Amino acid sequence: MRIFRLSPIFFTLLILCSGIVRGSDKLSDSNTVAVYDNNHFVTIEQLNKYIEDWLYYKKFTNRADVYNNALNDLLVNQFKRMDFFEKGLDKNTKLLKRISRLINEELVAEYFETQYVRKYANEEYAREIYRIMDKTVAYQLIELIKPENASQKQQDSLKEKALSIQSEIEKGKDFGSLVKKYSQNETSRINNGFMPPVDWKQSISDPFAEIIFRLQKGDLRILNSENEILIVKVTDVNKISLAPFDSLKNQIISDLKIGFEKMSTDDYEKDKKALIDENKLKWNETAVKQIVEWSAIKNFYLNEYKNTFKNAIDNGNNKIILEYDNGIVDYQELLRLFDDVLIMKNTSVIKEEDIKNFVLEAIRTDLIAKKAEALDLKKNIFHAFTTNPAVKNEIGYQYNQVEIEEKIPEPNSENLHQFFKENENGLFYQLQKINLFVLVFSSEDDAENAWSKINEGTPFEKVTGSYLVKTYIKERNGEFKTYLGDEKPIFAEVAFKMKESEISKPVEFLDESGQPGYAILKCYSFRPEKQLTFDDVTNTIVEDFKDYYRQKISKEVEERLKNKYQPEINEVVLEKLISPGK
């Protein structure tokens, strides 16, 4: 038998080709809008959510522009996150320092999710629930309410009463008649003792419901709590049909999260509080008062705290604020906690107790973040395909800082003059621009009535109480355009014949859908056409310079990333999204 061996080159080509086939196969999926890097893809749901989250319908009026721009931005932002990790920026100490507080906040959230929420809301427990959730339990109820601050004698008397009622039921006495005689629950009295059936969701959030849900038809129980005694009789156990587990799994887990939310939170808060023994705290009241004084500095907790603490430390005044069972917090440590873990909000009044509570919260949060790191939970949130919105945005922002902002040339005098010279006849040629206030009317009579009011002395802005604001520019070739928008410049021809502060007579127009209307225009301000000099733009050219190179470098980065990750667009699916009626 002959054995054939594939050469390394052929084997590599085979892998590459198989990747392309997988991508192409996915591209034929009717739910896939795009495929990139061979085996990653964008679904219709992901694109629609991105459009909704980032308000693309407010940015663009044309549906094609909405979908095309949103898909491009979604892909490019994902490529930036991928490139961020491939370039090793996740190991950049200086960069990580900028985002350490966010990462720690999300680590704490992930710790809570994995160690507390998932203790109850997980697939294993979901399977247990699935085995019992195919029923609802119908029951009747008699409720005996305990008097407020009931004595032991009163409680014993109520228990005897409940046992007596139970005995009557067991001897065949009609439950409904006993409800009317004894029950203090309004719902049970109105409905002959019948209460809404218990399902599995109630059973995980209500201790009484949990007991009732596990009873059989005909069972009779007395349930005792701090505030009442319940006499419960199960009248029926109704079976319900269920879809397969795999189709219900995610919903069950989601419902478990809600049902056990309080229990999860209580467990977490109890364990969190136990991290520090508050009986062993030793506060330096002088240091605490000093921080209260500093808190009154404008923007102290925004950015001023850094210099304030550093100045104190550099001057040999690094006071200890707190000694506790596991360590100390001095100015240096509190500065680290502010930078990396938690920050107070700027409020008008901060008291000593607020500082103490914050310091304890920051220490505990730091300890939990370290526990999360020890469990290697960082990998769950800090990676190229994270679904955490805050982390996604921060990775993109830091990538832009490194790959775009830091590569913008220095706006020194030489560079600015060269930039002006190169863009003198374009960016620094001032086109005519007009700002308008517009009153719009559906009929000529309404417009004429408004015009009469203006002639009688009513200010334009008060004629109807509201008006549109439009800004148009006139290109060098005489073409009118809406400034920073894509709507038709309907009123531009009339507007550019007006003088500043002039108000027009009623003019007839056709709106973008071709419907007639009438309008009165006011030229709020007019900017003439002009070739600007360097002196004219001294106050704005630095930002113009930065914006120019920011856009230029951004385009270069975008093209590089597209070439690297090779996105393929499912034009058929995209066209259906753009034109759903076709």
Structure description:
The protein is of the alpha+beta class and about 575 residues long. Among the domains are: about 125-260, Chitinase A, domain 3 (Roll), CATH 3.10.50; about 280-350, no CATH class; about 430-530, Chitinase A, domain 3 (Roll). Helices cover about 50% and strands about 15% of the residues. It is built from 24 helices and 17 strands. The strands form five sheets. The protein has a five-stranded antiparallel sheet with strand order 13-12-11-15-14. Strand 14 and strand 15 (about 515-525) form a beta hairpin. Helix 5 (about 95-120) crosses helix 13 (about 260-275). Residues about 1-20 have low confidence and may be disordered.
CATH architecture of the domain at 126-258: Roll
Q: Whole-number radius of gyration?
A: 35 Å
Low-confidence stretches: 1-22
User: How many DSSP H or I helices?
Assistant: 24
Q: Termini, distance in Å?
A: 59 Å
The 3D shape can be described as: extended
| Number of DSSP E strands | 17
- Biggest sheet: strands side by side, in what order? 13-12-11-15-14
CATH topology of the domain at 126-258: Chitinase A, domain 3
Largest sheet: 5 strands, antiparallel
In helices, the fraction of residues equals 40-55%
Q: Quote the beta fraction.
A: 15-25%
CATH class of the domain at 126-258, please? Alpha Beta
Counting helices, strands and paired strands, the structural category is alpha+beta
> If you average the pLDDT, what whole number results?
92
